[in-house]
Amino acid sequence: MLDTPPAVRRSAPTSTHAHDGPPLISYVLPVFNERDGIRSFHQELLAAISERPEYAYELVYVNDGSLDGTMAVLKDLVKSDRRVRVVDFARNFGHQMAITAGLDEAHGDAVVVMDTDLQDPPAVSLELIDAWVDGAEIVHARRRTRRDGVIKRATAHAYYRVLRACAEVDIPLDTGDFRLMDRRVADELRRFRERSRFVRGIVASMGFTQTEICFDRDERFAGETKYPLRKMARLAIDGVTGFSTVPLKLITRLGFMVLGLSFAGIVYAVGMKVLRPDITVSGWTLMMVVVLFMGGTQMLSLGVLGSYIGRTYAEAQNRPLYIVRQVIRHDGD
Predict the structure, then answer these.
(1) What is residue 270's predicted lDDT score, i.e. its pLDDT?
(2) What DSSP element (H or E) covers 124?
(3) DSSP H helices in 28-107
(4) Are residues 22 and 55 in contact, defined by beta-carbon separation less than 8 angstroms?
(5) What count of other Cβ atoms lies within 10 Å of the Cβ of residue 245?
(6) Contact, 125 vs 48, CB < 8 A?
(7) Residue 91: DSSP 8-state
């Protein structure tokens, strides 16, 4: 559990971006195929921020290559609310890249990152803002409960704990990308331009004053999850390989274990040859076990090494993290 040390409440923004008026809160909102639920989310978000009229707001929606008509809805939101801005990707680049683009576009004294499927309640973002006012520079929204399927809950519970055990940084348990960051933190995060991004791990590794707000995660309002098992597995691999060398160390340990088993097999085979030469097919079972085990171990090792080499290859290409087709603002802005 991350605790915030006593701090003086903020009476004025600490932003490096000078502007007149009240502190500006930016919402970074990745969107992918959310046509059926985006209007409901927007209305709930407006209802939430209306309870804090002492702040100014900008709502940065990032359309991550949606194919279901989501962009048309986002254009309507821009027309109806001058606080809304839409970053439209040229294609789908993924959730982590959408967060990155939103951070690049946001200018607030504090930046709130949250999904738009209403599983992260907009009202909880007000608690994040309150914690920021009390002095926290990073405020994680930690899931106290979640209304997902049994398999999703079990795998998520296990993953966060395995990641924390393996990672070389202290990544908070049961936290996704729903969080608030102070302007200084957001500016520092923008300097991290790696392609295989695991934003929650990067933020946790940055230091600063961090705290948590617990909340109960709701069911998805509409549509299907945008993180099926395949994408969850890819994100899990990015999290482990990006913040831990434990898999490489496990290969070394596994190698020593296999070497020991191979030595035992050699002793057994030689002993049977000397002591029981009458058994003509002795050692066949052991030979097959050793061959299959060695083959499986080698393939596993190559897979782990390939993951790290692949990350190096992707970074060496130095391609853009994302491509923006257009940024849509309210008329007159």
Answers:
(1) 63
(2) helix 122-133
(3) 38-49, 70-80, 95-105
(4) yes
(5) 12
(6) yes
(7) S
Ordered mean pLDDT values, 10 residues apiece, the chain (333 residues): 46 49 93 90 94 94 91 92 93 90 94 90 92 92 72 64 63 79 92 80 84 76 54 60 61 67 65 64 64 70 73 72 89 63
At 136 the pLDDT is 92
Q: What is the pLDDT of residue 4?
A: 44
Judgement on whether residues 287 and 152 belong to the same structural domain of the protein: no
pLDDT of residue 11: 45
Burial tier of 303 (Cβ tally within 10 Å: 0-12, 13-18, 19+): exposed
Shared domain check, 266 and 208: no
Q: Is 197 found in the same domain as 308?
A: no
- Number of structural domains in the chain: 2
177 shares a domain with 300: no
Q: Do 121 and 158 reside in the same domain of the chain? A: yes
120 plus 69 within the same structural domain: yes
Evaluate if pTM is beyond 0.90.
Answer: no
The verdict on residue 305 lying in a domain is yes
* 280, burial (CB in 10 Å: exposed 0-12, middle 13-18, buried 19+): exposed
- Verify that 151 and 271 share a domain, yes or no: no
Judge whether 196 and 238 are in contact, CB under 8 Å: yes
Residues 55 and 150 placed together within one structural domain of the fold: yes
- Which residues lie below 8 Å from residue 42, measured CB to CB, with a gap of 6+? 59, 77
**Structural domain of 253:** 246-317
Give the model's pLDDT for residue 114. Answer: 93
CATH of the domain at 212: 3.90.550.10
**pLDDT at site 159:** 63
Element (H, E) at 232: helix 229-243
Sign of CA dihedral 304, 156, 200, 7: negative
